[in-house]
Amino acid sequence: MQIRRGAAALAGAAALGLLVSACGAGNTGNNTGTGSTGGGGGAGGGSLIVGTTDKVVSIDPAGAYDNGSMQVQTQVYQYLLNFPQGKNAPEPDAAEKCDFTSPTEYTCTMKDGLRFANGDPLTAKSVAFSFKRIVDINDPNGPAALLGNMESVTAKDDKTVVFKLKAANDQTWPQILVTSAGPIVDEKVYPPNKVLSDDEAVKAQGFSGPYTIGSYQKNQIAQFKANPSYNGAFNKPSIAQVTMKYYTSADNLKLDIQNKNIDVAWRSLTPTDIESLQSVNGIKVYTGAGGELRYMVFNLKTMPGSNDAQKLAIRQAMASSIDRDALSTKVYKGTFKPSYSQVPPGLPGANEAFKALYGEKPNVDQAKKYLTDAGVSIPVSLQIQYNPDHYGSNSDQEYNEIKRQLEATNLFKVNLQSAEWTTYSKERTKDSYPIYQLGWFPDFPDADNYLSPFFGPNNFLQSHYSNQEMNKLLTDEVTQGDKAKREQLLGQIQDKVAKEVPTLPMLYGAQVAVAKDDVKGVQETLDAAFKFRFTSLSK
């Protein structure tokens, strides 16, 4: 998805001397409408059941930065800007318009008459409160890292909110407003200093998106009901009620869509299941824009190694020992492809730094040299943690294959451990896991979204990686208005990641959903915004 600025916004930027370019400011300036896909019409009737193996960490945006929680938040919260179905740039949602009013100020004017489902008014004060509390709470599982460039947020009045930015000319700021940091919450309901529980959030009905939540049993059943007062960037719902059914096993999810007991299966069927479902009458398999990344994280404090040099050598030796092609073909049947950078191929500025430095195939001699040169005793004992449910049931196979590959070098001895997602997502932030699996579902389609949240100050990985040179490179690329120069900086950052290996990228994949033949709109929501919108679905 290419991000564009509207002509009027460009004119305003030129008058202010801004360097904001086509890479990230969005076509939001002076756009007072909601686009052809927004607003209008009323909710239709009928119901749908959508199945998933994803888990919800928190409905409250301050306490969640994961795909399962984002799935719920997409349906029930408004954002200042949003990606409507099939659109290539953020458009106004709760805002009437947004634009840079100085190099370090981004100003949004709110629509009139917005309300939460409980009747409370949604104003600029709600917006300022929502963004400030995410930073103030700074929950370990929250999205505060996305707001690293926000110095302050202020409601000038009920209709005007101003973001003051630390670095000028932020190429990504309008897109950040669409991310997990962007949902607007009710300041009369959500506490300023702690995360609201799911049950309290449902009871309070501080929702203003296309749907609200009716009955709710966390990670079992969630019932979404069309919100008749919604006025934003998405369509009005055509389905009056959508039930999200949560599965502990991809096997059961596969059986229910195969037997047509549910209408849609969205995350995460196994590659074998997807292959077999393609021949089942009455259902269709849909694939869409990808960007999902699979990688390992190294806790630089607790990973093996007596000093920084030894820890680096171990990471580099592991990078020299992984066979990504085998993971792709043996485990994922090609539904995931090898990734040789933290930025998946296809995005402007992406390179293959890990291939250039460590090779396309395992190199045992090189791996051994890294270890011996640093004085590391061989074999190295590795404790690797992975999650068996959040990233699909093939995680078991994936990490057993990784264990096999590492031990085949005779350089490593691997102890695999696993934990269910709600436990896993909390424990990884407590220095409990020396080396662990994560996946990444993009917040927005820009290379920076695969870099700044991982390696910048207060990064969400909390892996003890901190590097002033990296911080400067990240600031420079985000604020660089020249496309070619920005891509050069993005390449330098990826090269630095490959040399230091704070993470080890391995695979990237596409979105896949399976639906009954009478369900429409599935293909349309599988776009690069990575938002599965119930508003796109109809029967």
Q: Summarize this, please?
A:
Helix content is 29%, strand content 21%. With 539 residues, it is of the alpha+beta class.
Topology:
Elements: H1 7-16, E1 47-52, H2 67-76, E2 81-82, E3 91-92, E4 95-102, E5 105-110, H3 124-137, E6 150-157, E7 160-165, H4 173-176, H5 198-204, E8 211-217, E9 221-226, E10 241-246, H6 250-258, E11 264-266, H7 271-277, E12 283-298, H8 308-319, H9 324-331, E13 336-338, H10 353-358, H11 364-373, E14 380-386, H12 395-408, E15 412-418, H13 421-427, E16 435-440, H14 452-455, H15 468-478, H16 483-500, E17 503-516, H17 522-525
Parallel strand pairs: 1-10, 1-11, 14-15, 14-16
Antiparallel strand pairs: 2-3, 4-5, 5-7, 6-7, 8-9, 9-10, 11-17, 12-16, 12-17, 13-17
Helix pairs in contact: 8-11, 15-16
Shape call: globular
The CATH H-level homologous superfamily of the largest domain = Periplasmic binding protein-like II
Through-space gap between termini: 27 Å
The major β-sheet equals:
11 strands, mixed
CATH class call of the largest domain: Alpha Beta
Q: Residue-averaged pLDDT, rounded?
A: 89
The total strand number stands at 17
Radius of gyration: 23 Å
Total number of domains: 2
Oligomer: single chain
Helix amount, in percent?
Answer: 25-40%
Note poorly predicted spans. 1-42
* Secondary structure tally, helices: 17
Structural class by sheet pairing and helices: alpha+beta
- Give the name of the CATH architecture of the largest domain: 3-Layer(aba) Sandwich
* CATH topology-level name of the largest domain: D-Maltodextrin-Binding Protein, domain 2
* Strand-residue proportion: 15-25%
